[in-house]
Amino acid sequence: MGGDSFHHVRDFGFFELPGGLKVALPSIPLPEFLGGHFQITKFMVLQLLAAAIVLVIFRGLSKRIASGQPAKGRFWNFWEAIALFVRDEVVRPTIGDHDHGAHDHGSHGHESGSHDLHGSHSGGHGTSASDAHGHAGGHGHVGHAVAYAHPADKYLPFIWSCFFYILICNLLGAIPFLGSATGSISVTGALALCAFVATVVFGFQAMGPAGFFGNMMPDTGVGGPFGKTLSLGIFGIEIFGFFIKHGVLAVRLFANIMGGHTVLGVILGFIASGASMGFLWYPITVGSIGMQLFIGLLELFVAFLQAYVFSFLATIFIAGAVHEH
After folding, report:
1. Burial zone of 310 (CB within 10 Å; 0-12 exposed, 13-18 middle, 19+ buried)
2. Structural domain boundaries of the chain?
3. Cys-Cys link to 122, which of 18, 28, 116, 128 (CB 3.0-4.6 A)?
C-alpha cells in the first residue's frame, strides 16, 4: 500500500500536489526555550480555511435575513435550512424553554402564523430566521441583554459554530490533495475542550458555581455519615463522568473520520497489490474504483452525521448543566 493513501488524515508541514509536488509551509523561528521554531502545518491551514468559509457564508446569510425577509436563492436557502434544523430540532427541544437566570416567561415569542425560512406560515416554532439573531422585537429584554425568541437561543451561536466548523472541516477532506483536520485527535481534542469550557461557563451562568456542582451531588435520602459518604462518592463519579463524556466527543469524531479514510486507503491498496496478478488486476481495479465511489458518497453522509452528533451531544451536556436535576 502506498504511503500516501492516508495523506488526508496525516498532518504535515506541506501540501502534496499531483505528481508528487510538495508545497512547503513556513516555519516561524522561536526562542530556544520555546522549541526553536513553530511549524505551520496542513491542518492549521485547513482549519483557518474552514473558519473563513463559515464566516463568509454566514456573514452573507445574516445580511440577507437582517431585514426579517427570507433569504432568496438555493445556495442561501440550503445553509439557512440547515441552521434552522439545528435550532428547531436540536437546540430548542433539547435545552427546553426554562431559563434559570433573570428571564421573562411570557416573552418566548411563540406566535402562531409567523414565517419559517421560506416565508411560509408555521405555527410550530413560530419564529423566522431573523429571530434566531435576536432581531425580532416584542420579546422583552433582560437588562441590556439580547432579546431571544426562545431562551435556548442564547446557546445557538456556540452550537452553530461547532456544527458548521466541523462540517466544513469534514467536507474539505473530500477534496483531493487537501485533508480532514478532524481526522487528527489533537484537533478533535481541542474541539472537545471548547465544548467542555462552554458547558462549564454556561452552567455557572445559569446555576452559579454552587448550583452547577450541586447538580452533581444528589440527595440520596440516606442520613448520617454513610449518606454523606455516598453523596460524595456519587459526586466523584459525576465529576469523572463529566470529563469522560467530553473526552468521548473527541474520540468519536476522530475515530469516525479516521475510519472512513482508512477504508478508502485500504481499497486503494488493493489496486497496488493486484498489479502483479496479471489479468486479475483489471477486475480488482474496477471493483476498487466502484467501492471508492460508494465509500466516497458514504463519507459525505458521515461528514454531515458527525457534525450533527458532536453538536447534539454538546447540546445535551449544556442542557444538563443549565437545568436543575
Report:
1. buried
2. 45-53+76-97+153-322, 102-149
3. 116
